[in-house]
Write a structure and sequence with these properties.
Radius of gyration: 34 Å
Number of strands: 0
Helix content: 10-25%
Strand content: under 5%
Amino acid sequence: MASSRQRSPHRFARLSAAPDDLFDYAQPPRPRAKPPQTEPSAILVTDDWPDIVPITDAELRVMEAHFADLLDGIFGPKA
């Protein structure tokens, strides 16, 4: 069955063509604020790692699998 309701021709606004340039160049750009000039301070580095870092067998196998070529170049091939 067809709807007996009539559609209004003004229901949807007509879309005009989009402008070629979407940027607003009418206003000059605002000047950017410059950061204050200060002397860099010394960076304090602390090391709280233990002398020997524990590592699991699974972690060791992953590192050996991914770095095998590099480790062979440093320590030589496996005997």
